[in-house]
Amino acid sequence: MSEKEKKQVRDSNISRRSFLKGVGTGTVAATVAPTVLIGAEKSAEAQMDEAVSTAKIQLNINEKSYQVEVEARTTLLTVLRDGIDTSGNNVDLTGAKLICDRGECGGCTVIVDGKTVYACMMLAMDAQGKQITTVEGLADGDDLHPVQEAFIQHDALMCGFCTPGFIVSSAALLNENAKPTLGEIKEGLSGNTCRCGTYPFIFDAVKTASRKNFN
Amino acid sequence: MESWGEASESRLIGKRITRLSGKDKVTGKAKYTFDINRPGMLYGRILRSEVPHATVMGIDMSQAEALPGVKAVIPLIESGKKLRYQGQEIAAVAAETDDIAKDALRLIQVHLEALPHVVTEADAMAEGAPQIRENWAGNQSEPSINKNRDVAAGFEEAAVEVEATYHTPVQTHVCLETHGHVAEWEDEQNLTVWASTQGVFGVRRDLAQYFGLPPNQVRVITEHMGGGFGSKFGPGSEGEAAAKLARITGKAVKLMLTRKDEHLVAGNRPSMTQHVRAGATRDGRLIAYDMRGYGTGGISSGAGFVGPYVYHVPNTRTERVNVAVNAGNQRAMRAPGHPQGAFAMDSLMDELAEKLGMNPLEFRRINDSSEVRQAQYTLGAQEIGWHRRNNVPGAGNGVKKRGMGVGSGQWGGGGGRGTEARVTINADGTVEAVTGTQDIGTGIRTAIAIIVAEEFGLAPTDITVKVGDSAPGLPSGGSGGSQTTASVAPVIKTAAAAAKQKLFEHIAPLLEAPVADLRVGTGIIYVASDRTKTITWQQAAGQLGMESISEGGHWAEELRKGVVAGTQFAEVEVDTQTGAVKLIKIVAVQDCGLAINRLTTESQINGGVIMGLGQALLEERFMDAQTGRMLNANLEDYKIPGTFEIPEIKSIVFDTHRKVTGIGEPPCIPTPGAIANAVYNAIGVRIRELPLTPDRILTALAEKKA
Ligand code: FES
Ligand code: FES
């Protein structure tokens, strides 16, 4: 089907809302085998009606301006990772990761106007007019941020998938508290999760970085 | 005979060397499969069953296909077939954006006829339970029975006996990078796949087979990889779906599992329930062990566990059964079968020791034939301050009570044949080491650089290491069983040695010395008998002119060795009002063979301990019996260790010999047992079920009072 034909389908008046909502709790436990249905919560046109209004917005990321087209539901993280700017280039800032998709793991941590934010929980539209710093924006060219240096020195990373989030959170922590105690480091990084178990060396790295002049 | 030489001769091997990939990882430049963006790339998603057991009556994909931005929809199951667990694949879509792919899934209509299900071991084994697996009466496999000498006779000799039931629940891997692939066809015959995998060549083999291609027409790339822990071998149905969607659409397709998918279908550590009766003689020798146990690996089998473990029992009888439930399949998870069995065994050891009135450490010394662990007991006890331990479990009147415990483990990790590698010296002095292994976070990339740099007198950063790509056609095995380093290191070492020999042959005339008289120093090559004759590495390589030296390596049995022993000590503080267990300190004494890189080895021990403490205190898959669904398939309700759970961890690389061995798995084994024993020592009530959550602690304390 061509995009045009699809649009016609979308615009036609046929209602497909005749299906039940997805199987609910308890449905399947019935002893008599019922016919159940997964999917089809909403028809195609219903979804299109609500979802597909887009807007062009401008975002300021790592001191660079990006123009991107987003839907209302598009998260900041989606723009960073998957966004394509209006001249057709990938934003391609893939340092921030999607790990839990619900504000639990900190893998997507970025700094917005000086505060750490879970980019998976922030709508792209709400990030307009703000200064966004991602892990890619922390180093000054080849000069690494003290936190980055300390992470390498202490081997505060294994697979490294959680690392960008921890780096950003650690940098933000030291901005607020130049000499954190171990307890304050744990508190400051409690929004981040690592499965490989790098925590002890992360604590060491943050301590080392805190001893350096990081501003 | 090849050898790694003496410690005193090593400039790099065994030292603390920072990771080659460190800079890319801290700057966000490291590209994982999840980060690959290809021109015109589409996003794939999989529709999965929300019901645990049903027959598929029909799938209608027409609405999804009609959604603008959707490029392909394919079924992954046929009508008439059965869905046997929540999360099983039904259909896959590829769309221009991930959000559209998500929308499209909601438009696929699936008609199902529900079938009765069971999702807990107890329900599956209950009388009259619906049979969910063919040929498994009562949803149980044939028992596997093992006997050693005469267990009945053993019990006659026993002065004390313990009979108890130990249980560990299903745990999931929680790889932070979910399973997934980016697939792209160059033409009808050539496929490139970026895969988040522990086995580049395994994925290549499986996908080639699936599409009927010769293996060299499939290229698999794993530059960086966000955790596998045993769950990431082979492309799985999601990898096949990604490649299929890419073929149909003619575009690259990225298909990563969601966090929920990951919990449901990407593997888990099976549960374990052991009924044990065991006895010891008056002088503290284990004499008899009789165990009946079962576990579930979901709808599959493979719920094995160790027992008896580590300690020697002369008379044993064991019987193990797999129980089928309507849940996703188990996969190998870090030291499969060991941590759960070790928890049961180390708990049992303490229970027997108490009946004998013996110090649990003393009781272990009597029954452990490993000389390495005997030495580790001494060192670990010293590090934790074992002399401070409560002699009377649960003693003291305070609200917060402290206790100490010990646990042990054992693992293979000796590596094996099958790795091919190439070390190249170019005329400009650059060096490249290439092999088809993959760095799953363990630091093999850096280990390879260290070995080559040691051989050449260079720095690890001088070596370009290429791993995680099947294109050079240098296969290596999957990274499982803690086998990677021991499999790869000998081949790299011999390849580097061969290349060095070639370079020596090339420059010997220039130095006017026999080849056998040449040596490498730091950045130089010199003549051993006349130290004034020396040239720099650069000059030596420069002699190659337009050529380069490129040598393969070979397996060298004598460079590696399997079987490592480990011991851990834990100190805990239990709040008897809240039931919270706070870890104070864990000492992990781990035999590592020859640690190529002491820094990354310590990281791995830390990592094992932390995964072990997660199993001890936090992790449990909850299944709802009514709906047959997993209740905590997210990172909010499925708890893994965070910063607050981390105690002081003292990871001790326990040097035993100078042969390479693997270390990824063993350090997670003794942790749960050591912690459980420490909790008992603190509160004087034995909890035989993991995780040791506050509710279990409070219930146990209440029962003790009553
Ligand atoms: S992905 Fe954003 S917090 Fe986990
Ligand atoms: S380093 Fe792998 S998850 Fe943190």
Molecular structure report:
The complex is a heterodimer of chains A (215) and B (706). By secondary structure, chain A is of the alpha+beta class. Helices cover 31% and strands 14% of the residues of chain A. Chain A has a 5-stranded mixed beta sheet, with helices on one face. In chain A, a hairpin with a 2-residue loop joins strand 2 (54-61) and strand 3 (64-71). Chain A is elongated and about 50 Å long. Chain B is an alpha+beta fold. Chain B has 3 domains: 7-20 and 415-559, 2-Layer Sandwich (Aldehyde Oxidoreductase, domain 4); 33-116 and 179-256, Aldehyde Oxidoreductase, domain 3 (Alpha-Beta Complex); 268-413 and 561-705, Aldehyde Oxidoreductase, domain 4. Chain B is 28% helix and 26% strand. Chain B contains 17 helices and 28 strands. A 7-stranded mixed beta sheet of chain B has the order 3-5-1-13-10-11-12, with helices on both faces. Chain B has a 5-stranded mixed beta sheet with strand order 7-17-16-15-8. Chain B is globular. The interface between A and B is large, with 91 and 91 residues. Strand 1 (35-38) of chain A pairs antiparallel with strand 6 of chain B, so a sheet runs across the interface. Bound molecules: FE2/S2 (inorganic) cluster (2 copies). Residues 98-101, 103-108, 118, 120 of chain A line the site of one FE2/S2 (inorganic) cluster (FES).
